[in-house]
Design brief:
The complex is a heterotrimer of chains A (277), B (268) and C (347). With 268 residues, chain B is mostly helical. Chain B contains 13 helices and no strands. In chain C, the strands form three sheets. In chain C, strands 5-6-7-3-8-9 form a six-stranded mixed sheet, sandwiched between helices. In chain C, strands 11-12-10-13 form a four-stranded antiparallel sheet, with helices on one face. In chain C, strands 2-1-4 form a three-stranded antiparallel sheet. The chains are: A mainly alpha (277), B mainly alpha (268), C alpha/beta (347).
């Protein structure tokens, strides 16, 4: 019959992963419920890539070099496809969490036997995968037509892994911002600052390799670079050494941020129990 | 005589709406300030990107940082004016598809003007401020240049709002154009903030017609830099043509709506 | 063992007051004026395993706050509670495996997916094995008559269909207790009736305890044997439903519309004529069911003329609560009445 209550850790390893992958799968299916609508919303990448193709063609022509900082025109554009895909498909975790805190639905989800953060992370990842898939295909098509085939296939799994970790890093930072809504009423300003930091310091608009020398090392060490630049850079020049360095950096940031998030959540939960959010 | 009176009446009505919007915005001053600062930061982020870009590639088809500053400032001003004064243009497609026009239809004021001016995006003030800062950065104060800047910004705003109204008006026929409308806003802003010189002939043609980004950023910015009679004529013509198209499309759509409701289907 | 045992449960919230105007907002930023709201003030009650208990009260009475404390979401300011032997706010996760919840105004189903997907997800969340999940889905689908709805995206279901799926989902993991917060809100009478029957059946067949909150007296009347009425965070009435009925739910409003104008010349015994109007087409009566059988009244009405439409309704719950409240205030104990002598004749 029913198991007696047992230690949370043992319980997690027995049933936990299945639980959260089930959430992820369900959210993925949910996201794919309207394929036409999804494609229409993903059209933004087509526009952006079209502009980028024009911009970088003119730029490479003006520079008179076929490679800039080791990147060819094709590399740069394929880099931008993946960078934009990560950026455009990352779910609005902070908005969702802030809303859940404000309207109290966070409280209702607590009445179920799962770790709330784990549940949210699974939902976010499922959402990102659905949108990211469509976005990448559309953007990739445009760039393929313009500059030729994508980087070699064997690097794709490495980049794919890095993209997943990138979305998890984003989840941690966005969730931290979302939890701020326990303290301040309106978190939109923080969301803005955060998304601009990614835009400039993450390498969404140009590969961070093009930054001036002094800045480059500093910016590449930040979590923002590990969300965008690291996976996209791995994608265009897959190589075991680079993978170990960038993926290791990603995991380190993920660890630090998830510890921070766990602590923030513990505090938020205490507040919630007293005031109901 | 009566027409003149009408215009006066409508203008004072508009002024009243704008005043109400402004008061509502100032009611939450902390939010107002944070949104304006947020938008300034947003624009600063893009300009920072260009600064980094031009450090690595000083000239792209003859374009440099100064040109970029002028272009970005112009687009920000036109966009900012548009969303502050006619903020509902951004959500017009949703308003139409969710029968949000009905309350306006029962009031004795011009529907389109009333809908558009009934909403205001506070963050637009940050864009206007960005535009003014860009202008100030570009050179010494010169009364004629500022005058041209004002006129060009007006054109930029009119073309931008007209374009949004045109796209949103599709809702009258296809049921819901909100996803399309969102993409259109993204597109026109993306195109209006990149140098025209990187696009070739056919792309340029598109940017002056179907997606009139050229009239929101590049051409008005050129006009601010140096006056030509031809530039002025082009801008005036663009403003009039797009305004007329928007008015025709919206009012045809409205007649369609009043006679048979919205095309349904296309859920979600 | 009691399913729920609550002793002197209290919950206070601190709220910020804000003066009007811009100055007020700014001042509130620096030095917020705090006030205390007592949402629940000293609640004590017991619910047996397998019982159907109704929890009614107007909006803002403290029903939801109580439910939140019983599920462990909110910590009480003071007092004690045990739900299925657990202290909810200390053992929320363990308790979660044994209870089911439906919050009428918030869907737990994935809107764009067929309900069966949410059922399967719940199977994972509550750690059932897949074969058991399948069997259970089939069984619940039959009980709630949703077999033909399981494959349809939830957003395309009617509210009544969706609510049947919601309640079925809450029963998937064989909870010992389900907490239904306004399950019939917004439903039409037929859908309400169906969902009540199904809840009743599951209670009888599986012995699942049901704590139901509602502001619709009809829900409670159809479902519950015992009822607790709360208002302003306090119990104002707690007794068997039959006693409540005898005391307060004795009046029904009957309104009739005839095909042809009729003249009402003789009074129907045990009824009070409220209005005879509409040019002879309409008739409104108050029926005291303690004195008159409603079927008899309907028969009498039938004799008056051919009936086109007829509605029978309970007096609004607010009215009953007002009555109870007034009586409690009269009896002088500050609004909390716990009539022990439930068999005392109605006054």
């Amino acid at each position: 019959m029913r198991r007696p209550p047992e230690g949370a850790t043992r319980r997690f390893w027995r049933a936990g992963p299945a639980k959260y992958t089930a959430v992820l799968r369900t959210q993925l299916a949910h996201g794919l419920a309207f394929p036409a609508d999804l494609a229409l919303r993903s059209l933004a990448i087509v526009i952006f890539m079209w502009v980028f193709i024009h911009l970088w063609r003119a730029t490479y022509a003006g520079a008179g070099q076929s490679r800039v900082q080791g990147l060819s025109l094709s590399d740069t554009l394929w880099y931008l496809v993946l960078a934009e895909t990560i950026m455009l498909s990352k779910p609005r975790v902070s908005t969702e969490i802030a809303r859940a805190v404000r309207d109290g639905s966070v409280a209702y989800q607590l009445a179920r036997p799962f770790n709330w953060l784990g549940y949210q992370a699974a939902v976010a990842l499922g959402d990102a995968l659905a949108r990211g898939g469509v976005t990448f295909v559309l953007g990739g098509l445009v760039v393929w037509l313009a500059v030729g085939p994508p980087p070699p296939l064997w690097g794709w799994p490495l980049a794919g892994l890095a993209v997943i970790v990138a979305w998890l890093i984003d989840f941690c930072m966005s969730a931290l911002i979302g939890l701020l809504s326990f303290v301040v009423e309106d978190v939109t300003a923080f969301e803005w600052i955060y998304s601009k930091l990614i835009l400039v310091l993450g390498g969404v608009l140009l590969p961070l390799d093009f930054l001036p020398d002094g800045w480059r090392q500093l910016v590449q060490a930040l979590p923002f670079a590990h969300m965008i630049w690291a996976p996209a850079r791995l994608f265009v020049s897959p190589d075991a050494g680079l993978f170990l360095r960038l993926f290791g950096g990603q995991l380190a940031w993920l660890m630090v941020l998830s510890l921070g998030l766990g602590a923030a959540y513990a505090r938020a939960q205490k507040r919630l129990a007293v005031n109901g959010g | 005589m009566t027409t003149l009176r009408r215009i006066r009446v409508e203008l004072s009505f508009l002024a009243a709406l704008w005043k109400t919007n402004l008061l509502a915005a100032l009611e939450y001053r902390a939010s107002f300030i944070s949104q304006v600062l947020g938008m300034l930061l947003n624009n600063a982020a893009f300009l920072a990107f260009w600064l980094l870009f031009f450090q690595r590639f000083p000239k792209v088809n003859g374009w440099g940082m100064r040109d970029m500053l002028g272009l970005y400032g112009m687009t920000a001003t036109g966009f900012g004016l548009g969303v502050v004064l006619f903020g509902n243009a951004l959500s017009l497609a949703d308003i139409i598809s969710q029968n949000g026009l009905d309350p306006y239809l029962s009031l004795p004021r011009p529907v389109l003007l009333h809908v558009l001016a009934s909403g205001s995006r506070i963050s637009g003030w940050g864009d206007i401020l960005t535009g003014l800062l860009c202008m100030a950065l570009l050179g010494p104060p010169d009364a004629a240049a500022w005058l041209r800047y004002g006129a060009a910004a007006l054109v930029s705003m009119i073309v931008f709002i007209s374009f949004l109204v045109l796209v949103a008006s599709l809702t009258f026929w296809i049921g819901s154009a909100s996803a399309l409308s969102g993409s259109a806003i993204n597109a026109i802003l993306a195109f209006a903030t990149y140098p025209m010189s990187i696009f070739d002939g056919s792309a340029k043609l598109i940017l002056l017609t179907v997606i009139p980004a050229g009239f929101i950023g590049a051409l008005p910015a050129d006009f601010v830099r140096h006056y030509t009679g031809r530039g002025l004529a082009q801008l005036a013509a663009a403003a009039l043509v797009f305004l007329a198209l928007a008015l025709i499309a919206f009012h045809r759509g409205l007649r369609h709506y009043e006679s048979g409701g919205l095309a349904t289907g296309m859920g979600g | 063992m009691a399913a729920i045992d609550v002793q002197d449960l209290r919950k206070q919230f601190t709220v910020k007051h804000k003066a009007a105007g811009l100055g007020g907002s700014l001042r509130a930023l620096w030095r917020p004026r705090l006030g205390v709201v007592e949402a629940v003030r000293g609640l004590s009650f017991r619910m047996e395993e397998g019982e159907l208990l109704g929890f009614i009260g107007p909006n803002g009475a403290g029903k939801s706050t109580t439910i939140k404390m019983l599920t462990g979401i909110l910590h009480p300011t003071s007092g004690e509670a045990r739900v299925l032997g657990h202290v909810p706010w200390k053992e929320r996760r363990q308790l979660a495996y044994h209870i089911g919840t439906v919050f009428g105004q918030r869907s737990q189903l994935w809107m764009h997916l067929p309900a069966v997907d949410t059922f399967q997800l719940f199977g994972r969340i509550y750690e059932l094995d897949p074969a058991e999940t399948r069997r259970r889905i089939a069984m619940l689908a039959e009980a709630f008559e949703i077999e033909h709805l399981l494959e349809t995206p939830v957003r395309k279901l009617s509210l009544g269909q969706r609510m049947r799926c919601e309640v079925a989902a809450s029963l998937l993991h064989r909870p010992k207790l389900i907490l239904l917060d306004e399950p019939s809100i917004g439903l039409d009478p037929v859908a309400k009736q169906r969902i009540r029957e199904m809840i009743k059946r599951m209670n009888a067949e599986e012995g699942v305890g049901v704590l139901l909150t509602s502001h619709d007296a009809g829900d409670i009347e159809a479902l519950c044997k015992r009822v607790i009425i709360i208002n302003h965070g306090q119990i104002v009435y707690e007794d068997r439903l039959s006693a409540l009925k005898r005391r307060y739910l004795t009046e029904k409003d009957v309104s009739v519309r005839f095909v042809e104008p009729v003249t009402v010349d003789v009074a129907i015994p045990g009824t009070e004529l409220v209005k005879a109007g509409g040019g002879g087409y309409g008739l409104k009566l108050k029926v005291d069911t303690a004195r008159t059988n409603i079927a008899e009244v309907l028969e009498r009405i039938g004799h008056l003329g051919e009936v086109e439409d007829i509605t029978i309704s309970d007096p609004a719950l607010e009215e009953i609560i007002r009555t109870i409240y007034e009586q409690a205030a009269l009896s002088g104990d500050g609004g909390s009445a716990n009539p022990e002598a439930s068999d005392a004749p109605a006054t």
